[in-house]
Write a structure and sequence with these properties.
2 copies of one chain form a homodimer.
Chain A: H1 13-27, E1 39-42, E2 46-54, E3 60-61, E4 64-65, H2 66-81, E5 83-95, H3 100-117, E6 120-129, E7 137-147, E8 162-165, H4 171-180, H5 197-206, E9 210-214, H6 220-232, E10 234-239, H7 247-256, E11 270-273, H8 278-286, E12 295-302, E13 307-310, E14 316-319
Helix pairs in contact in A: 1-3, 2-3
């Protein structure tokens, strides 16, 4: 059997075989191995809880695949929120006819990413839908983390705080577009998709002056900044000259008429921190390969939620949330 | 705007509007209202964790809809496992073009079910896929519960224990088939889809002699019994004459050539209990309207995982797991 059948989803024999042959083998979690309808896990009394469904198209792309993305996405949500990610659940919606080899690759990638991040897969589920009612594979991951002493609090953000981004902007979005369009930019644009808990958790533990972190996924850096500014009721001033970009991503975006500030990132975070520790935080992030282009990109001003971009030409323009569809199924 | 657009899923303005106009309004949870990427929840140190994706077709059926089902399903998984359900995450995959009114109905039903069960919706996510890459709506719910002192332990099951089912068998499966086939059985067959934590949690707290509970969803009572028997390494003897059925469900199944023991249930549980408390447990369950047909249906024998059905005619046949597709997308 080399393709997913509807019967793989009926809860009977084939479902059991799929779980044993692929999920248990690739995830190898003791807890998942019990195959119960729930898992018994231990965690702190105050827990963080985050969920995300992943429908990215294509499912394999330069720098990752839907499995790695689904794992990294929820780990990063938990981390920026201010928790140490502990457990993930993973739930698959498979389309009838999906090659089982592709499923195995995705599951393996998800399992490897979880192991490398020190996060256990504790619960799972699989459903199968008819051909034409899905698109190969959709994955939901839901995560539980242990809340840290420091965590994201928008009300701590004050005028004068510094705004940091942990690296080049727009890589994931650009990788997906180029792969999807079959465009060869004669480039090596890769998704930045990766778990960042090994950087973010130590940041929370090392610096008391971090006010808030967020991962700028769907909607990109611009939408995320606008969301934070509104929540904090402060204005943000961003300096275009300080924004770190891979030049290839910038040209690809230009060719396609897209603004890289609205392209999704899947291995980056934004941090709003006390001005006094900003350089130290940037140095800390730069020690990691995933953070080598970290930079202060702007500052917090009194205000009511406007995000202003000071352009290279010296003008100022407002950044708003993404409106209308830029790129469906980017994550 | 009366239909879901791709842009509802891009993380920008329309996504925000959808969250505010529909999800926050219908779910009304303080926690979800913060709209962060994660939620900060409090729970016991030992928690139960369960995930399930729901792809049922049709999304509205006699006795419920995909929203109620998605809520009840995970609440019941947490409950039979031996925990008090506390929090749910809810993640939607919407198909472009889905009528927003249908979405609102589903979300309302999910929210009402959660409120009536005393469970908070703490985290959410929405993705939109192109027309023809989904089927109106798929929902993942993932739940966190507080582990109880007593909980499901297959190794406690001993020869002589009694096997109880909490009510009529096969109602959900029969309701879906009849609705799907457009068949009017001149009947009032309804899905049993409902949360049962108000029965199951007090059962765990009242009786020390409950060894294990399970909800017989996909694959039905037969598959679930086989799974329990294998896990406990015991044989089960089930008496056909003791099985509670709605006669309409039985005839509908006969007409369609389906065995109701393999039809899904979404508001029932199986309990394996010490023989000495079996009648007391049945009486307890019968006090609730959802449990009025509860019955002892069989007993545990020494063995290695066989499930035998003693038929009305006096013969014995083996019950195995569901093999091949009986009914795709039943939940």
């Amino acid at each position: 059997m080399d393709k997913i059948l509807l019967a793989h989803g009926d809860g009977g024999l084939l479902t059991h075989q799929l779980i044993e042959d692929i999920f248990i083998q690739e995830f190898g979690s003791d807890i998942l191995g019990e195959m119960g309808d729930a898992a018994d896990i231990e965690c702190g009394k105050r827990i963080a809880f985050a969920t995300d469904s992943f429908v990215v198209n294509p499912i394999f792309f330069p720098g990752g695949d839907i499995g790695k993305l689904a794992c990294a996405g929820t780990i990063n949500d938990l981390s920026v929120y201010g928790s140490r990610p502990c457990f993930l659940s993973v739930s698959f919606i498979l389309e009838e006819g999906m090659p089982i080899e592709d499923l195995r690759k995705v599951v393996r990638s998800l399992g490897e990413t979880a192991r490398s991040a020190g996060v256990k897969i504790a619960a799972g589920d699989t459903k199968v839908v008819e051909k034409g009612k899905g698109d190969k594979i959709y994955i939901n991951t839901t995560g539980v983390g242990e809340m840290l002493k420091n965590f994201s609090q928008a009300n701590k953000i004050k005028a004068g705080d510094a705004i940091i981004v942990s690296g080049n902007i727009g890589d994931h979005g650009a990788a997906i577009i180029s792969r999807r369009a079959g465009i060869d930019f004669k480039s090596t644009i890769k998704s930045d998709c990766t778990p960042l808990n090994h950087i973010i958790v130590p940041l929370w533990e090392t610096f008391d002056g971090i006010k808030l972190m967020r991962d700028p996924t769907r909607g990109g850096v611009a939408t995320t900044l606008k969301e934070i500014a509104l929540k904090a009721s402060k204005d943000f001033l961003i300096h275009e000259e300080l924004l770190p970009f891979d030049p290839q991503v910038k040209s690809a975006a230009e060719v396609l008429g897209l603004d890289p500030l609205y392209l999704a990132n899947e291995g980056k975070f934004i941090a709003v921190v006390d001005r006094k520790i900003a350089e130290e935080v940037v140095d800390f992030i730069r020690r990691f390969p995933e953070g080598k282009n970290a930079a202060v990109i702007g500052e917090v001003l009194e205000g009511r939620g406007d995000v202003k971009l000071k352009t290279l030409l010296g003008g100022t323009k407002s950044l708003d949330m993404l409106a209308g569809e830029q790129l469906p199924r980017i994550c």
